[in-house]
Structure formats: C-alpha cells, structure tokens
Amino acid sequence: xxxxxxxxxxxxxxxxxxxxxxxxxxxxxxxxxxxxxxxxxxxxxxxxxxxxxxxxxxxxxxxxxxxxxxxxxxxxxxxxxxxxxxxxxxxxxxxxxxxxxxxxxxxxxxxxxxxxxxxxxxxxxxxxxxxxxxxxxxxxxxxxxxxxxxxxxxxxxxxxxxxxxxxxxxxxxxxxxxxxxxxxxxxxxxxxxxxxxxxxxxxxxxxxxxxxxxxxxxxxxxxxxxxxxxxxxxxxxxxxxxxxxxxxxxxxxxxxxxxxxxxxxxxxxxxxxxxxxxxxxxxxxxxxxxxxxxxxxxxxxxxxxxxxxxxxxxxxxxxx
Length: 320
Description:
Order of helices and strands: HEHEHEHEHEHEHEHEHEHEHEEH
Number of helices: 12
CATH superfamily of the largest domain: Response regulator
Oligomer: single chain
Strand order of the largest sheet: 2-1-3-4-5-11
Shape: elongated
Helix content: 40-55%
C-alpha cells in the first residue's frame, strides 16, 4: 500500500510538472496579456472615407483582440504624415504601421523610427520601398498585379477603349494600377485625372471625357467613391460604357448587383489594418518577423455579381 501511495504521489507531481512545461521541456510562454504595448497607425487616407474607415476598423479590432493600445492618425499631406510618424517616435511607441502613398516624403521619418529601435510594418501603399526603408514586411497588394487583373477582366467583358481615372496626383500606387491595366488590356487605356473623390465633380469630368470620345466603352476608377460618380455619368449619358473600380463600399456592391458597375478589385483593407497591428504584436511577444523578406498579400480579389451578395454581408458590418 505504501509503495502504491508513493507511486501515485510521484505521478501527481509529474502531472504538475508537465502542466508547467511544453512537450519539449521548455517553460510555457509568459501570459501574452501582460504585454503593455502601444502601436501607432499612421496612414495617408481620410478615416471618414469608406475605404480608410475599414482600415481603421481592422487596426482597432486587432488592438481589442490582442489587448494592444492602437493610436490611429492620418493625413493626406505627406509632410504632415511624416510629422505624425516623428511624433510617434518621440512618444517611444512599441511599433508603427504606416501607409506610403508618397514614399520619398516619408523615407527619412521611417528610417529614423527603425534606427530608434521601433519596428515598422508598411501597409496599403509602398510595396516597392518597404524593405529599403527597414520595415519588417508590407501588407497589401501589388498594384501592378491588381491592375493587370482589371485589364484581364475588361478583356473578358469585350471592352476596347477604357479610361483609367486617377483621383490623387502623385500617388504612385494609383499610377501603378493604371500601368498594370495597360500591360494586360488588349485595347487602349488612357489616364484621366480628377480632383479628389468628390462624386459630383468626378461625374462631371468623366461625363466630359465620354462626350469628347464616343469610342470609350470602359471606365476604370481607382476609388469606390469615384466609381459611383462614373456610374452616374454613364447613366446620364445613356451609354453602354462598362464601369469597374478598385475598392469597395456598400454602395459599390449595390451597383455591382444591379449591373451599374461590372466588377470591383478588392484589396481587403480590413486585413491590412488588422495584420499590421497583429504582426507588430507578434514581434513584441515572440520576436517573430513574418514574410520571409517578401510582402504579405491581402489581395487582389474580384467582386462581381456572382459573389457580391456574400461580400455585402461583411461590408454592412464595416469589415469589407
């Protein structure tokens, strides 16, 4: 009986020991909830914009899920965006997520953050420069590849002459989208510059272009808001021009369902905001660097009439 009691006590002690160790004999990791992290998210977009509100929602949800403090700031002016990065560095945050629509204007600030020992993840724009600037990885889509996908889809639709509508001068990512479309589209692609994403103003500019050239049978916009203006311009003109766009909103999805917009190229902005924060959390928690020297692709995916209803469910909750 004494031997049996000794054996049972030994087994119990062994069980307690195993519960405190992993299968490799290593101690269990520290409670991740004990991390006290502040991550700054600095983008070039207006959070009131449908697209950037989704990026912000993704970043803030990641903060909630992981117990991380997320400070989200944005400014379309590259100088002011650079200053926001500098401010984050001065506050000694634990990581910075940044979008780079104009990389040259942000280079010094991002490199200063890295030199200060603050890990950086780039999202959305900047896929060609993140590595040179010292970021861990980039979360987004290749704008060139996304543009090529749009060009291929217009080929399937039978278009021959399309406008590629750029709404933000100097944004290299937007230019890459149009260049990608030109690369794969079998017809003609011409760029059209509009001033911002104001729907009415964009509609007027596109209407003028359609009236000036009746051979145009396709319009590719690079913003969901501009796409609504393009769809209105086509309706007003009573033409058969096919409209497509980059990026989503609930209104864009409605127009896809009723045929006013043929398709949308979705780069999944919620993923960009969420993963940007999550990857910096993993860096702080466990020293992880995700990507292996390559970007992490969040897109592109195509939204058409075939899958619009499914995507609409998520768009209504602000995550697509």
